[in-house]
Structures are given as C-alpha cells and as structure tokens.
Amino acid sequence: SDLPSGPLCGLSPPPGVFCCGNWGCLVPRSRLGSGDDYNSTSSEFFPQVCTKLLTNILDIVEMRGAQAGGCNFFLTSGRGDVVSQRTRVVKSKRGHLATMLFKKLRSELRWKSFGRLRTLPVVLAQGHSRFGTSSAPAEIETHPHQWLAEHRDIVWQRSTESGEWQQSITNVCITITHNGDFDGWKVHDQVVPNGQLGEFLARVLHHSNPAKGDSPKLAGVMDLLLCGGRWVASARLAFVKVVLQHVEEASGWMKLEAGAPNSVPQPGTFAAWARPFHHVFAKVARSFAPDKLSIRKLIDQVVHLYSGGEGEATLREVMGDDAAFAELKQWDIHGGVLRRFCTAACLYFFENDMLGAVAQFFDHAEGTFGVSVTCSLWPQTIILAAKGQPISVAFDIKRPLAYWASEPASLATKWPGLAKGDGPQQTAGKSRVDMQDATGEVWEIQMVKAENPRDIHQTVKALNELALPGTRLPGSIYFPVPGKTDADFDDESPYRIILRGCSLDGHATPVLYYQFQKRMIFYCVPPLPTLSKAQRRLPDAIARDLSDIPYVLNEIDECWDDSLSLNRLSGTRFAECIGFLLNRRQAKGSDIDILIFGVENSLWLGQQFAADLARVFPRLNVTAMSSNWVLGMLQAGEGHVEPSNFAVSRRNFKLSQHAVVLAISQSGTTYPTVWAARLVARVETITHLFAMSGDYDTVLGTSIGQGLQMPGFNNSLFSTLSGIRAAEPSTVATVAMQHTLTRLLIFSAMHLQETGVVEAREDLLQDNLSNRFSDDVRPPCDLRPSEASDLLKLARSLKNSSQLLVGHSPLQCPLESKVFDELKQMGNHLAAHLTEGYWAIVLGAAYVYITVTAGFPLFVGIWGKLAHGFLADEWQEEATEIVVGTHLISFVDANLYIFLAIILATIHRWRTGRRLWTRYTARTIVICDATMNYKLLRAYLSKLRALAWRFTTFGVAGQNPCDHFVHEMTHLANSDVILAVGRQDGRIASLAAAEASTIMSVQQARFISANECGGVEAISVGHNRWEKPGLFSKAVALPTAQRLPFLSEKLMNTQRGSYAPGTVMHHVASIAAESRKQDSEKQAPGARDDHGDLVPWVSMEELLDRFDDRKIVPTETAMKVMTDIIVEQAERCGIWKSTAAEEFQKFAASHDFFQDFLTHTNTPRQSPARRRNSFLSPRALLPKFSLDARAVVSTSQVMAILRRRKVADWLADLRRKTRQRELLEQAGCKLFLPDGDDASLLRKVWLAWTRYFLNQTAGRPASRTAVRSFSFSLYGDKVLTHATAVPLGEWRKVEELRRNGKKHLSSIGLSLKTTFLAWSRMTIAGRAVRVEVAQPTKPNIDSHSCVGARLVEKCAGVQLLAELRIVEGLYETRVAATERLIAFFVIFYAAVRPVSRLPMWSFNMDRSESRLRVASTPAPVSFCEALPAIPAYMMATLKLQAAFRRKLRKMNESGIEDPKKTIE
Q1: FRET label pair with 781: which of 831, 1052, 1198, 1463, CA 20 to 30 Å apart?
Q2: How buried is 241 (Cβ within 10 angstroms: 0-12 exposed, 13-18 middle, 19+ buried)?
C-alpha cells in the first residue's frame, strides 16, 4: 500500500497514491521570476512556470490515483467579465496525466487567443486528479465540476474602500473539486442520498447534470448555497429552506427519480420574486451597513412591500410578472411563511459568501471531504475544506505564493526554472500548514493588493470592518499569513496573502493568527538532488529502488545502533510497554494485548511480525488485523463493515488494559489505517499507540499526536527511512519495513532482559523448550540475551548480502556480483517465456503482410519459379504433374500461414534453450514461498505487468508450498505454468523439514504429467546449493558467507556446500539420539578462546602440514609459520596485512613465548587423564623427552601459543590502534578538502567524530548529555544549512542532525576514504570527488563462530535442537525470507523489463492504469461519523500534567534548586 507522506526536507520527491487528489496554486502574475529576483511577468494565458510547478505537484498527487484530471483558472473577456477556463482529460492507459492535461489546456487556449480574452493580475489554478470510486472514468465525470456553469446574474458587491454597495450584471461560475465520498445531504432534517440529491438539484436549479458521480452533486449544492450578493439565488435558497417542506414536493409529491415531474417555480419566477428585494435594497444600498438592526429594518421593508403595504399594484409592477405573483398564493407564501421567506432571503444575501456557504454545506453533509471551491465573482480567492481527507498548504510570503495538495510530500517541490548558479535550490514554499481533517476545517485564502505593503495590517483591518459584518462567520477574521521573520516579506511586491477560517466540528471555532503561526512548519534549504552516474544510468524508478536497498538497510542499522535516534527512543518505549504487560500476567488472556493493523503489504508484514512477536513473548495475545476490520469494528455509526471470516467481531473485539497498538502504513496516509488509529486513540481502554511509516512527517504520525508542530517527541513513532517511493511495485519500501520490524523485535527482547524489566532465560533445567509446558509456566521472553545477540548479528548481515543480490553498495555504487548476474540470467529466462507470444505474432504478421502484399507466398513462389524455369522444357504448363504439385505446394503454404505463429514460437524456444513442446499460450507464474513472501511477490509481479499489452501479459498466482499449494494449485499443473519456488535453508536443523516439504510439493506438481514437456517448469531460489536433478530448470543459490553459521550446521558439518534436506533430517535424528558428552567432545564450541576474544585459528592437521608432518621443529621455523598464519588471517582479525608480520615480530621479541614453556620443564608429569582434561594448558603440552626448549618446539606448544591470552590481547590492542590510525590519517590534510572556514569546521567535526566513535568502539559509550552537546556544538546552523532541510520541529531537527553526522561512517568494512568523501560531500555539497566504483562490504565475521555456541556446554540432543529452534525460525522469517524476497524482486524485474521495452508496445512498469499507490479513500469502509470525544482519563492526565508544569515553573521562579525532588 504504501507511499510516505514524505519528508519536509532532503531530496526532491522522484517523479511520478488511492483515490482523488486536490492541487492548485495562487500567485501574482508579476512575481513569477526565479532566483533572488521574483519580478517577472508572464503574458501567457497560463504561465509556463505554473505549468511546471503544478506538474511537479501532480506527479506526486497523482499517485493517489490518476485515471483522469482537470484544471480550472480564470481570464477576463472583452467586456470585463471574469470567465472560467476549465480543461479536463481522461488519461490513456499508458499516458502521463500532467503531460496530457496541460497539452490539451494549451491547445484550447491557442484557439481562444483569437478572441478578446485577457489575463488577470493573479493566477488562481484549481486542479484535481481522479480515481473513479463512484463512476467510470470519463471526461464528464472528471473534476473540476460545475453544475450551472457560467450564467449571468445581478450581483451586489460592497466596496472595501468606500463601503458602498455596487450593482452589476456579470458572469457567475462556481467550480469545485472534491476527493472522498459524498454520501448525502440533509434537507428538512432528512438525509437525501446522493442519487436522489441529483434529481432534487435538477428540479430546484432547473439544470440537469448527466454525470453519475457524487462530486457533481456537491457542485450543485454549492450553486444553491453560494448566493451572497445575489437576490435571485437568495430567494431560491429561501424557497427551498422555508417554502418546501419535503424533497418530494419538488417532484409534485411523486417519487424523486428520473421522469418525475418538476413542480419547482421556474427561474423567471425566482427572478420576479427577487425584484422586490432589489427594489427595497437599491434605495438604501449607498449607505447600508449590514448589521443586525439594519438587516432587520430591510426585512421589515421587504415584508411590507410583499404584504401589499404599498398596494398590490405596486407589488405587481415591481415584480413585473403576473404569473410569478400568482404563484405566491399557489405556494401559500403569506403571513408567517412570507416573513420567514423574506427573512431567510435577506440573511442568505449577506451571510452566504464563499466561506459561509461552504461552512453551511458541511453542517448538513455526510461523507469524507477534501474540497476546493472557487467563484468567478472572487477570482483571487480559494476556499479549501478538509474533513476526513487531508489537505496541506505551502506558503512563500515573499513572492507571495500559496499552493496546496492532498499529499504533503508534493509540496516539497522546487520552484521551476531555478538554475544551479541562481542560488541554493529551495522549495517553492518556505512553510507548510496541514489542515485539521480529523475534526474538519475550512479556510478562505485570498490574494490582496495593498497600497502600502508594510502596513498590511491596516488593509486587513479595513477589510474585516467592511467585508465581514453580516456574514455567517463574522468572528473568522482575516489575517496576513505570517512568516518566520520580518525579512521574509518583500516590500517590492504589493500583494499579500490573507487567510481566515474556522473549524467544522459544529462550533465553528475561528482560526486565529497566533494559533495558525504555531502550526506552521518552516522548510529549510534542501541539498541538491544528486544521483551517482550509475544511478542516472538506471532505466526506471524500480531499478533505482532496488539499487537503494543496501543504502536504506545501512541507514536502518545505523539508526537502531544509535541510542539517541528516534527509532531507538520509540523502540525503548515500545519494549517497556510490552514489559509492563508481561509483568502483569503469568498466562495469555482472552483480550488483545498487542494489536497490529495495516493494509496490503503493510498488513502482510505486520502479520509475520505479530507471529514472531507471539513466539518471542508467549504470554501475550498478539493479533494482526486489516485496518478495514479495525475501523469497521470501532465505528459506531452506520455503514461499518465487520469481518465475516475472522474470529474477532464487534462483540469480542476488546483490548486489554495498557494494550500496545501498532499502526503500519508505508505512506502514512492510508485511509483505513489513519482513521483506525484515530479511533483507537479514543477508546476508553488505556492503550499505548504507536505508528510506523516511511517517514516521520506523515498524516498517520499527526493522527497519533506526533505531528511536526509538536515541540517534543513522544516516543511513539517509527520510520522505515525509505522515504518517498513512487513506484507502485514496492521493493525498497517493503524491505525497509520488514527490516525495521526485525530490529524492533530484537531490540525489544534484548532491552527487556538487559535492563531487568523481565527475567532473562538462563536455567535450562526449568525453562527449556523441549518440555511441552503450557503458556502459564513459560518464561516472559523465549529469546535469551545471547540468542538475541546472535539474531542481531544475523539481521545486520542482511545489509551485506543485499549488496550481492542487487549489485550495488550502500554508497549506491555498482559492484560486481556473481549471484546478481545469476538472478538476472534467471530473469532473462523467464523473459523468454513472456516475450514468446510477441515475437510469434509480430514476425508472423510481418511475414503475412510481406508475402501477401507482394503476391509471393514462400513455397508457391519457389515452385512457380521452378515450374516456369527448370521444368518448363520437360512438362507443359497444364501438365497434370505441375497442377498437382501446385496444389500440394499451396497446401504447404496454407499450413505455413495457419501454423506460422507456432513454428516461430518453437524456433524462439529452441534459440532460448527452453522446452520445445509446451502449451502455446500465455504463461502463468505461480510463486511458492512463505505466506508473507508469496503475497508480497504476487502483488509486486501483478503490478509490474499492469500495463502489459494483451498478447504479452501473463497470469500471477501464489501459495505456501508447506500449506495449501498442493490442494489449491496442482490441478493447474500444466506446461504453461512456471513455479517460482523459494526454498528454506535445509542445511539448518529446524528448517530441513520445511525445505523437504517444499520440494515434495513441487515434485507433486512437476511430475503429474508423464510427458517430459507436459508438466510445469520450476525455478528455484534458496540458500542451499543442493537441487534435485530434473526438478528445477534453473536454480540460484543465495550467498551465506555474509552471516554466521548455526551451531546445528557445525554439528552436522553442513555450513558449506550443498546437502539434501533428507540427509540433514537424518543427521538431526542422529544428533537427537546422541548423548551430551559425545556431542560436546565431537564438536568445538566456537572459534574464540575462553575469554571470547578473536584469535588466529588453525587446525592441528593444517599445522602439521605446514611443519611437513614433524611434531618437533626449530623455534625459527615455528616463528616463521606463526608469522605466516598471522599475516594470512590479518584481514579476519581486523589488522593491516602489510604490517602484520612486523608487528608480530615486535610482539614476539618483547614476549618470549618459548621461555614461558621452558620455565615448566621441571614440573611433575601429569597423568594422561588429567592431561586430556586440560588440553589447552601449557603444562599439559610439555614434551615427554628432554630437549633444549630454546632450539626446538612441539606443534602442541605452537597451538597453545596461538590460543593464549597474550596473543588475543595483542590482537585486540593492535586492532584498536589500526582503526584509530585509519580514522585519523584519513581525517588529515592528505584529503582533497576545500580551504576556508567550511574546511576547518569539517575537519573539526570529523576529528570529534573519530573520538566519539572510538569511545563507542572501546565500550565507553558517551552519555546522552555529552552526545547532545557534541551534536549541537558541532552541527550548528552552519553545517545544517549545507547538510539537509530539516523541519522546524525540534525533535525532527535532532534526528536529522544525528543521521547526517553518522551517515556512511559506521560501516567500517567500507573504504574509509570513500566513506569520508561521501560524508564530506553531504556536508559541503558538491566539492568532494565522487567515487563511482565500490567493492562489496566484507563482513567482519569469524568463520568459526556460530549462532547458539553458548548452548554447547549446557544441553545436547533433543534439548539442544529445541533450544536452537526459536532463533533458527526467527532467522528464516526475519532474514532468510527477506533475502529470498529481494532475490525474487531482482528476478521478476529482469523478467518483465524486456516485455516492457518491446518495439511498438512498450509500457512503464512502475505504474498501473489507475496510478494507485496509496489507499487514502474511505473504500471499502466508509467513515460517516464524527470522532468520539477524548476519553476522560486522557483529559485528566493532560490536566495533571499541565498543573505539574505550572507548579514546577512557580518553584523554579521561587529559587528552589530541585523542584521535582521537592515535590516527590
């Protein structure tokens, strides 16, 4: 599902998420320049710079769905009327919406340029992109919508300078855009459904609209309500509100449907009824002030005229229509009805301006809305309203500029036309404000021209005094949009943006200046959007996303390794909330302890996370559900949807006290997830609500109370750090979320046990997993600290293995990878299957066209040449032989034409090395892997082929081979089916049965047909190199050298090479039968000494081989062999290979190894048994015969020397010195750094970083206070300006400082020069050399250490295997499955890429026809009620916290040193 709402800073969003999206801009035509000089006037009807700006916005907003789109703006006609220019377009299946829309707009304007149209001083563009939810895509259904369109009317407007009312006859055109669902509108205390509402409006307005969608009805309602300054429209609305008693009265009390009569008075009648209002108002208009007393007097005068106070003849004369006069009696408009009618008409005339009309609409509307409204009477004003759908607005008050969109991420676009030399690349807007869509909010944004720009407040004051009296919302006063400082204003521009608004929660609370200023989020200067040369060569967004996977994984690891990162802070609170639940119960309860919800990819990842979380914490009841079900069960109003195939329903959906709730949405704007989180936050049960999305700046984050407007971080928000990913087939966003959940799981288990919140598992006799105990006696956490540490190492290895899988390093540079090439080759093999139909059809069609057009069928033509040439002398032309031969050859040609496609397809199969005689039809790819993987890959592959042409498409299915695959899929086992099989690593004990089951399922599908070419074809991806002969046509073995081996692998000696899972299962059975003593004697516990330090490793056999099978050698030979071993293993030990020999010689000279042995020559001889029990003791290794120990030494003594503590300490010290030397030398003047203050500051920061990093490496982590001081002292505003754009929220600023300070520096396996240059390039943009070539990061892993090594001395046999099962299972679900997922991403991309680039029938793989990326609409669960009130306990907590803060403040003022301690 998933696209982030996006960062406020950093790189620009890439070009090109469910449902519709609003967008637009408001800017003076004279302020369209770039750089520092904004003064530039465009004479174009629609300026090109606005086209580019809106295209950049639309490229992000369209990802909410873009089947169609439209744009509306205003021009003036030759007679001075404001006219609407509306352009709408339905996007072609493979087209680009913005390109098609503005191309059509320019074409329409080109024709209109021959008329007398003129431009307005302010450009107001109102746009919308649509995903059809209520009707099929068509131009008539496309926004912007108008019901009455342009029509002429008498309009009264009050001068904002003199206060006089002026009358004119002008064009009136009301235009709206809307995203969401308009369910119905209340008329006379009855909700009229959307369908009937259209029939009602067609009768009241006497104008029908053939569009079937819901939004055109909203346009009709606005034509009915927006009647400010227009007596005819006011009289019509008064008739509807006062005279009509029921909607069916408009159809003569017939059922309101098509074909029913229309009994509403004609427009001429309403015009006649409005003339008395005109007549009375014209007499007082010059000095009329619309206060309550004046309006009441006006009403009395109109009632007096209508009641015949001036005579019936006068009334008839004023009306000018006897029929209209007669209809007054027909509709019983007299007495009290007449007074109410006149009162309503007068009030609507003054109250229903644009803001008042929209607010009145929301008082009676049901549904979800993101709305924009414009009217040609106010061409410099836009109304924006949000209730249930997000809208964000960005401002640049210096230009001035306002632009808005439904996706906050789209507002981070840059101003078009800004060249590199024109100054820093800045966002078009300098600040952003998000409308409060949860409770509802409406704004009126207006561009005003002030005589004195410095005195804008006087202009606004005069406007408030003259324009607002008498309106529906006089308390919602205008105010100028504030800036960050006074320097943000430009005195050269006479224009200013003013704003007023109110809430839509029923109280109409005004939007005030200072509250609005607090809500503003100010942009900082973002860096230049740079891509490496290799990235620029990548063909599309999906390829770039794949190449970014190692980079994002590295970012996630660095983030979780930093104790001050926001993810770690949120993870700490998440773990502590779980610990509180664990300590409150001893057994699993019936209520839900941990609830995880999301949609599509987020849900599938959450379900696997919930399963693993329940495995680690068996006492907790963990449930993962779809956000739609959670939303449906929490809704109290009509229209909710409940799960019908789920054990949880509204009756038993209950959260336990202090339950933990995690909402997952990659985009952060997914409608069901956002609204479910809002409802969960308001349940009466005390809950701890967390959210996870692609960035911290999301609607979901705001919904849980963690918006950027918050000054502090409440430790409840996680970020996957993947950022904006526009491609619909999700790759890096999916992997990032999976890895973030993995780190959260591991951190929770480690933190709770290390801090003592829950008891750690240590005593195997009481808590071993081999005993089938019930949950009430299970330990609170089944994952031991040592196992969690091993799992953390495995999780960190994912960054290294992903480099080999995608062929790119964390620095986003390409690298050579054999496995990457193999994955692409497998993808090319699949591509041959998928392109077979294309080449058969295209080449066959070309052959038919050529031969038929030329009249030369191949065989008939050749036969004709032979018959008329070589055979003409022997036979006559009419000879029987020639006639029969001609018919036979024609029969051959006919067969060739009929079977040409089959022949060409067969040749294509032969050329590509595939089976020849399989079905000639489209292929179906069936994904066989773990449940999470096959669902993710099924969605990914389906989206890759979404725009494929009909004869190049293919089917996609999937199932778990260990579950339903055999029952659900084997009846489809035909030769047109390709199985993409993901295999577990069967070399690991607990996974051998899973791989064996997978292979068995594939065999059942593969060998159903006895014909070799009749069964399915299968390809395989897995970590085990073994493959059954004849089962898979292609197989790729994923690398495992990047991770630690498992103890079970070492016990069975399967950590390297290929092993059949059946063989491994026999090994498992053997291990289970062996005794603990035999097991411990045969297997070494690990590759580290008793102190756990890294030492040189060499086996006795290898040492004897180096000594030529001599057990006694001279000390010089022994010294040389030991030096060679140190040099060979220098890289593994973390020291420099070039100086390893010299350093070891110095160390040996200062520590005489052999003298240590010599001092023990006179010790008593030990018994053989005791000598065996102390194998590593030097005394046990003394020779049995007397020799000069300084001249010779035994192989046992050499082994003891290499394993002794002195060597381990020496290596550790040398390793630390090596690391320090690398860092300090790279930070010196040898680097090509620029001169000046920036260089000095850069060196200062780098040196401080090395000290900080070395302290951490040496096990001396700095305190939080010290790190914060380090960050703020070194990463001040100067460095921040060069680094990245950071929102104003202090918590977000600290996070960005942390990320930029550590970026690329903790990957010690990388080249330090490359790392430092990358870091310096980010700090001082563009002045360091880019390194484009990289090598795979070599993991610092001791090949002889293993996962679970600490269990060797504690258990054996069945118990040992049981204890290993949990960490091995978590490795499969959290790491190995992710590696297979990445591999399949690469394979399927390589398979579909050639299909998308076929000549004449190419398409974009990164999008679908609907352009849907984020589900932000209320489907399939509609939200039709207001949010419930905040629970009482939350309000009480807030009051207590506020009182405590006031108490602290007073005590601080009174001089108390430690007020908190005093209060306690």
Answers
A1: 1052
A2: middle
445 close to 402: Cβ distance less than 8 angstroms: yes
Rounded-to-integer distance, Cα 211 and Cα 628, Å: 29
Helices 566-584, 732-754: crossing angle, 10 deg rounding: 50
Hey, what long-range contacts does 1022-1025 have (CB within 8 A, 24 or more apart)? Answer: 1022/981, 1022/982, 1022/983, 1022/984, 1022/985, 1022/986, 1022/995, 1022/1380, 1023/983, 1023/984, 1023/985, 1023/987, 1023/1376, 1023/1379, 1024/983, 1024/985, 1024/986, 1024/987, 1024/995, 1024/1058, 1024/1059, 1024/1061, 1025/1057, 1025/1058
pLDDT value, residue 1189: 42
At residue 950, the pLDDT reads: 74
Percent of the chain with pLDDT over 90: 30
Across the range 484-505, mean pLDDT stands at 85
**pLDDT digits 0-9 by tens, 815-852:** 889 999 999 999 999 999 888 888 888 888 888 888 88
* Residue 1460: other Cβ atoms inside 10 A: 11
**Any idea how long the chain is?**
1464
Rounded-to-integer distance, Cα 906 and Cα 917, Å: 8
Residue 1157, burial from CB neighbour count under 10 angstroms (0-12, 13-18, 19+):
buried
Instruction: Give, in order, the Cα–Cα distances in Å from 734 to each of 80, 423, 595, 723, 799.
Output: 56, 37, 20, 12, 15
Q: Which of 51, 159, 171, 156 is nearest to 103 (CA)?
A: 51
Helix (H, G, I), strand (E, B) or coil at 288: coil
Closest CA to 15 of 112, 109, 99, 105: 99
Q: Buried (b) or exposed (e) across 64-81, using 16+ Cβ within 10 A?
A: bbbbbbbbbbbbbeeeeb
Separation between Cα atoms, residue 986 and residue 1054, nearest integer Å: 9
pTM over 0.85: no
451, two tokens: 């005589």
Residues 420-432: pLDDT tens digits? 444 445 688 888 9
Contact call for residues 1096 and 1214 (beta carbons, < 8 A): no
161, two tokens: 């300078």
Virtual torsion, Cα 1453, 1458, 1462, 1463, nearest 10 deg: 70
Asked whether the predicted pLDDT for residue 11 surpasses 50, the reply is no
How far apart CA 449 and CA 463 sit, in angstroms, is 12
- Bridge partner list, 64: 1412
**Per-residue pLDDT tens over the stretch 562-610:** 888 899 999 999 999 999 999 887 777 788 999 999 998 999 999 999 9
Per DSSP, the three-state class of 229 is coil
| Closest listed residue to residue 1110, CA positions, set 1186, 1176, 1178, 1194 | 1194
CA distance 1421 to 625: 14
First to last CA, the chain: 48
950, 1028, 980, 909: which is closest to 1386 by C-alpha?
A: 980
Q: How far apart are CA 909 and CA 579, in angstroms?
A: 60
Of 1105, 1352, 1098, which is closest to residue 1203 (Cα–Cα)? 1098
Q: Is the pLDDT of residue 405 over 50?
A: yes
**Lowest-confidence segment of 755-759, 1178-1182, 1195-1199 by average pLDDT:** 1178-1182
Structure tokens at 447: 């561009």
Please report the beta strands in 272-378, taking only residues with DSSP state E, as ranges in sequence order.
Answer: 365-375
Beta strands in 1012-1096 (DSSP E): 1017-1022, 1034-1037
Q: What share of the chain is helix, strand, coil (3-state, %, to 5)?
A: 45, 15, 40
1127, 1246 Cβ separation under 8 angstroms: no
Give dist(CA 343, CA 349) in Å, integer.
10
* Cα torsion angle, 1281, 1286, 1289, 1294, sign: negative
pLDDT in tens, 199-223: 999 999 999 998 888 889 999 999 9
Radius of gyration (C-alpha) of the chain in whole angstroms? 39
Q: Which residue has the tokens 């250490």?
A: 1345
